[in-house]
Every structure is written in structure tokens, then in C-alpha cells.
Write a structure and sequence with these properties.
Length: 147
């Protein structure tokens, strides 16, 4: 009986985990912004090749390094929830760039299928932001991406 209960509990946990892992979970409202922590930043946007406006934050580093780093956040929440990592890199002197995927945070709304793990349109978002940063900074851009 104990073995059967454990197997049933394990199967239930696995099912819930796999179901949660499949879903995209965009959030429009920011939990935090750089302003909440007194961090200097510039809010900007870029338009993708298919016409979607993508919201961007730039946290300019003050160190000699100043190397641009683009943070591509995971498919849940928005860039405000990744601000701790962005702020840390900024304080270390990096020129930090963060963005929201279409349908997330301050980016333009998008009909997200929450049962999908990824939308191919997100590649356009990433490409547009990466090109924007590379053109503005005129140097290679490091990427820190999460899934």
C-alpha cells in the first residue's frame, strides 16, 4: 500500500511539474523597476521585423569595463523580476540591457498560447534588441539568457 501511494504521489508531482514546465506565463505589470532601487536607467523600445514594439531597459555601467551585456529573461514574468541580476552586473561595471518579450511587461501585447513552451516570434524580439544594442554601442554584445 505504501509503495502504491508513493508511486501515485510521484506520478502526480511529475504530471504537475511537466504541466507547469510547458506553460508560458507573461506578466504585464512590473513587480520592480530600476527606479524602485534608485538605479539610473534609460527606457527605450525597438520595433521587430514583423512590427511589434519591444520594451527595453538600459542600466549603463559606470566602470571602465562598460562591456554591453544583453539579458534575455525566461518565459515567465517580465524583466522586472530579473532586475537583481541586471543590477548586480551594472554595479560590476557592465552596460546592462534587458527587454521584455512580446506580450510581457511593457512590450506590445501578443496573443500568447500559454500551453506552448516557446513562440518562434520571440526570435524576432531577440534579434531586434541584439541588433539595436550592437548598433548603439558599436561593439560586440555578450548575452546572458535564461530558459
Amino acid at each position: 500500500m505504501k509503495t502504491r501511494s508513493r508511486l501515485l504521489a510521484s506520478a502526480l508531482i511529475l504530471f504537475v511539474s511537466l504541466t507547469a514546465a510547458r506553460a508560458i506565463n507573461p506578466q504585464k505589470k512590473y513587480t520592480y523597476t530600476p527606479k524602485d532601487f534608485g538605479i539610473e536607467y534609460v527606457e527605450d523600445s525597438v520595433v521587430t521585423s514583423d512590427g511589434y514594439r519591444i520594451n527595453i531597459w538600459n542600466l549603463p555601467g559606470t566602470g571602465e569595463n562598460g562591456r554591453p551585456v544583453l539579458i534575455a529573461c525566461a518565459d515567465a514574468g517580465n524583466m522586472g523580476q530579473w532586475l537583481g541580476i541586471g543590477a548586480t552586473l551594472c554595479f560590476l561595471g557592465y552596460d546592462v540591457w534587458m527587454f521584455d518579450w512580446r506580450g510581457f511587461g511593457g512590450s506590445q501585447d501578443f496573443a500568447t498560447d500559454r500551453d506552448m513552451l516557446y513562440h518562434s516570434e520571440y526570435l524576432r524580439d531577440f534579434g531586434a534588441v541584439l541588433e539595436h544594442v550592437a548598433v548603439i554601442r558599436d561593439r560586440p554584445v555578450d548575452v546572458l539568457a535564461f530558459s
